[in-house]
Design brief:
Blueprint (H helix, E strand, L loop, with lengths): L9 E7 L7 H13 L5 E7 L11 H4 L3 E2 L5 E2 L2 H9 L8 E3 H14 L9 H15 L8 E6 L9 H13 L5 E8 L2 E2 L4 E2 L2 H12 L6 E6 L5 H11 L6 E5 L7 H7 L2 H8 L11 H11 L3 E9 L9 H13 L2 E9 L8 H5 L4 E4 L8 H13 L4 E4 L1 H13 L7 E2 L9 E5 L14 E9 L4 H6 L3 E8 L1 E3 L4 H6 L3 E5 L6 E5 L6 E4 L14 H23 L5
Parallel strand pairs: 1-6, 1-7, 2-5, 2-6, 7-10, 10-11, 12-13, 12-14, 14-15, 15-23, 16-17
Antiparallel strand pairs: 3-4, 8-9, 17-20, 18-19, 18-21, 21-22, 22-23
Length: 554
């Protein structure tokens, strides 16, 4: 029997100009979703021009959320969009930075791999970039690999990336590589006109790097008339049906349908010479959108964190609430609460009107006492509670202080000399000095005890969830906690580390050491978020019922 021929991938590169934050990741994800809905196998990768090897040591204010994959890679938050749209897992191979490229090349130079040659940006850095760009396409798993190039055309640090793209396009067959350039078409109120000049300059700058874009995706607040498209096509050297309008959308999840209307997928397939006569199957996506846009109920959930000024620091949590809200036909209104602003004096005022409280992950001692005050209030007032990573650890500390009576109980992260280190450093973390990539990262198994809230939520005993932390529940105190009612209901089967805690006496009170938000997708909303939103909705309806019977309470 003849061996099955390996699938040969084609490559789409997505670049951006004029300004950052135009939405390259959303456009890349939307195109990938449309191609996937046609039956094609697609993956997306992000190439970031910064010198950090990964975003793991970056302050969330600097970079937003650090997204973690199953294999433990700390990556750009755009990989979260890729997974949420495609429902396909990403890995270390899907996010590459300048830092990693230079690290690889310099390590090779130190080994003597270049046989004494002068090591230069061209060809050595660009060769390493090309090797990484083509890596996923060489696995035989994908029809199309989409590569998003971070930053803007014209940035100094992006030049080697664009040179590598130019070389890939030059070296491969004509229909094997496609370049999509995302630009801005601003509207000037004073002139009452859409202006194409920024797009013209952006494309010209890309052309100076030796790259002629094949398709232009133009972000705008207003529709692009045909004469504007024709003008852009003429001055940017593309066909008029390769000028794609990308109007602002009320939700990122509507963008695939906008791109479908603009025929971006058809244009890409035509230019890649891929024959595909399948209709785009987006029925389940449209059902999700309908539930998202037409909620029956709404809830107010407080997100208590220390980076709340930058919502992107909690991007996956926010998106998980969107998925869970749609699943419950309920709009989740997030109340952003800075943990530093919370005290025992104002916690009632800030939390009493909420339907649920999520205490968010994080690092360091800033805002810790605010998180503990929030958890005590919701525990004592039976408000649905969900703690993630540091949020779970703070729940353990709060319980130790206020139920077990250990007033000095703390995490050794914040107080190394505490008499009751209920949260402590893992043994294998104690001698680590390097901060980057050395935490407990990626997917780990968890065994859930039967007849628990966690088991009812997951519907099974064995699960796998992603981690990103150094500190753990101190198991030597486990019997003390369980004797007082706080149960460890999820345990890592390999090392007996506590993964989940819950309070059976409370309507909904659960803390998890892992990050469930990293696995929630449009097609598979995470059960913890779905059930938390359901508990918040039940609590809200119960409150309204009581208030209707007792008008004086409202």
């Amino acid at each position: 029997m003849a061996a099955k021929a390996q699938k040969t991938a084609k490559y789409i590169f997505v670049t951006g100009g004029v300004t950052s934050s135009l939405g390259k990741g959303i456009i890349a994800s939307s195109l990938a979703k449309l191609l996937q809905a046609r039956g094609l196998s697609v993956t997306i990768q992000k190439f970031d021009p910064y010198l950090n090897i990964d975003p793991g040591t970056m302050n969330p204010y600097e970079h937003g959320e650090c997204y973690v994959t199953d294999d433990g890679a700390e990556t750009d938050l755009d990989l979260g969009h890729y997974e949420r749209f495609l429902n396909v897992r990403t890995s270390q191979a899907n996010n590459v930075t300048t830092g990693r490229i230079y690290h690889n090349v310099i390590t090779a130079e130190r080994r003597g791999d270049f046989l004494g040659k002068t090591v230069q940006v061209v060809p050595h850095i660009t060769d390493e970039l090309k090797r990484n760009m083509l890596l996923l396409g060489q696995t035989g798993d994908y029809d199309i690999v989409i590569t998003e190039i971070g930053g803007c055309v014209g940035d100094i640090e992006s030049l080697p990336f664009l040179e590598a793209v130019r070389q890939v396009k030059f070296e491969m067959n004509e229909h094997d590589v496609l370049v999509i350039h995302l630009t801005l078409i601003p509207y000037l109120n004073s002139a009452g006109e859409l202006k194409t000049k920024p797009t013209q300059h952006s494309v010209r700058m890309l052309q100076e790097s030796g790259i002629q874009p094949d398709i232009l995706v133009c972000r705008s607040e207003h529709p692009l008339p045909y004469d504007i498209r024709k003008k852009i096509a003429l001055f940017c050297n593309v066909q008029v049906n390769s000028v794609i309008e990308a109007m602002d959308a009320d939700t990122i999840y509507a963008v695939p349908l906008l791109m479908l209307k603009e025929r971006l997928d058809q244009r890409a397939l035509y230019m890649l010479d891929i024959y595909n006569d399948k209709d785009v199957d987006l029925d389940s996506w449209k059902t999700f959108l309908s539930r998202l846009k037409n909620p029956v109920d709404s809830v107010r959930i407080g997100l208590v964190g220390k980076y709340v000024e930058l919502h992107d620091a909690y991007k996956s949590i926010v998106e998980s609430f969107i998925h869970a809200g749609a699943a419950n036909e309920c709009k989740v209104n997030i109340e952003w609460i800075h943990s530093e602003s919370l005290t025992t004096d104002n916690v009632v005022e800030k939390l009493e009107n909420l339907d649920g409280v999520l205490v968010a992950p994080g690092f360091g001692e800033r805002g810790i006492e605010g998180k503990i005050a929030a958890i005590q209030f919701v525990r004592e007032h039976n408000i649905p509670f969900f703690g993630i990573c540091l949020g779970m650890q703070m729940a353990v500390i709060e319980y130790a202080r206020n139920v077990l009576g250990w007033e000095s109980a703390h995490s050794v992260e914040m107080d190394a000399a505490t008499d009751h280190p209920v949260i402590h450093l893992m043994q294998d973390q104690k001698d680590i000095s390097n901060k980057g990539g050395t935490m407990r990262l990626g997917a780990y198994a968890c065994k859930i005890k039967k007849d628990t809230l966690a088991h009812r939520i997951y519907g099974k005993a064995n699960i796998s969830e992603r981690h990103r932390h150094r500190y753990e529940f101190n198991s030597k105190y486990l019997k003390d906690f369980e004797a007082k009612g706080l149960l460890a209901t999820g345990i890592n089967p390999e090392n007996d580390l506590v993964e989940m805690v819950e309070l059976p006496s409370h309507p909904f009170y659960i803390g998890v050491q892992f990050h469930p938000e990293l696995k929630s997708t449009v097609m598979n909303p995470h059960p913890l978020f779905v059930n938390f939103v359901k508990a918040a909705l039940d609590y809200s309806l119960q409150k309204k019922s009581v208030e209707s019977l007792n008008p004086s309470m409202s």
